[in-house]
Amino acid sequence: MTLRHDLEYGAFRLVRTMWGLLPELIAVGLGAWVGWLAGSVFRVRRSQVDEHLRIAFPEESPSWRRRVARGSYMHFGREAAVLLRMGRWTSERVMDRVRMLDFDMVHNAVAEETGAVLLTGHLGNWEVGGAGMAALGLPLDVVGKGMANRRFEQDLFEIRENLGLRMIQMSDAPKGVLRSLARGRVAALLGDQNAHRNGVFLPFFGKLASTSRGPALLALRADAPIFVGFTIRDPGWRQRYTLVAERLEFARTGDLEADVDGLLLAFHARLERAIRSAPDQYFWQHRRWKTRPPEEQPSRR
Q1: From the CB of residue 118, how many other CB atoms can be counted at a distance below 10 Å?
Q2: Contacting residues for 16 by C-beta, under 8 A, at least 6 apart
Q3: Dihedral-angle region of residue 29 (phi above 0 means left; psi in -120 to 50 means alpha; beta otherwise)
């Protein structure tokens, strides 16, 4: 920990306390306004967001893409305000906010003690989705990525654990996920982050993106049922969400490498479809296409 980390954490605690004292409608409205400032005034990563939307939606007009970009910043400002307040939510309050569809198959996998893998992405509010599954009684283990500021990481992990989730550190994911599945639990992983040089390059919205093989390898080696789930914020001024899960189907060949690619391609197709249904709720600020395949690298003497 450094002095900068201490100052960052102190500011974070102050903001979290202030947001917790405000009425919810004001808190989420203020969060949306902060998001708008970040995207439209300070233009934090705005050039990347505009480029990502051009890649994903080349057929749409510039004005449409600008509107989606503004909406994305406002959405994540609003949902960040929700996250700051979630630590005090009860299971009843979570269930009052989340409408869950098509979860019978996930329940059956847990009842049969086979365990299940749930793949999701940075769409809607994945934190609320995890809380909704835990409130429903599903034994959920979530793979969480560490943060440079350990106090932020500790606070975020505590919020999730207070909501009924069990955390698995990213560094322990290979063994931790397999242990969870062996115990008949549900292991949730985010599968839409840039995997740098260690990933496999697969098309995402028509452009190759470095994709982590880990979630697919773990699911295939455990021979566990694989589901895809997304939590989309409902229209309106109230914070209500719809969480939908479905079985991820793809043609298995028996060849591990081919099956990894097939699973990830099927996940990308389902994620793209979900994003198109609510493009302003996707985290376009992430540099999904940053790492380029070797054939696109400039040649060296």
Answers
A1: 27
A2: 84
A3: alpha
Distance of CA 170 to the CA centre of its chain: 14
Q: In whole angstroms, what is the distance from residue 233 CA to residue 281 CA? A: 8
Question: Which among 287, 295, 284, 300 is positioned nearest to 74, based on CA atoms?
Answer: 284
Integer Cα distance of 138 and 96 in angstroms: 17
DSSP secondary structure of 104-147: HHHHHHHHTT--EEEEE-SBB-HHHHHHHHHHTT--EEEEE---
Task: Report which residue type is found at 94.
Answer: V
Report the alpha-carbon distance of residue 28 to residue 10 in Å, rounded.
Answer: 21
HSE-up of residue 176 (Cα within 13 Å, Cβ side) = 18
- In DSSP terms, 263 is beta-bridged to none
Count Cβ atoms below 10 Å from residue 127 Cβ, excluding itself. 20
pTM above 0.90, yes or no: yes
Nearest Cα neighbor of 93 from 206, 239, 263 is 239
- The radius of gyration of the chain from alpha carbons, rounded to an integer in Å, stands at 19
Buried b (16+ CB within 10 A) or exposed e, 217-234: bbbbebebbbbbbbbbbe
Within 170-255, residue ranges assigned H as helices are: 173-182, 214-222
**Mean pLDDT for each consecutive 10-residue tract of the chain (301 residues)?**
83 88 94 97 97 98 98 97 91 94 85 90 96 94 84 86 92 91 93 92 97 91 91 94 94 93 97 98 97 81 47
**Nearest one of 52, 54, 119 to 284, comparing CA atoms:** 52
Burial class (CB in 10 A: 0-12, 13-18, 19+), 57: middle
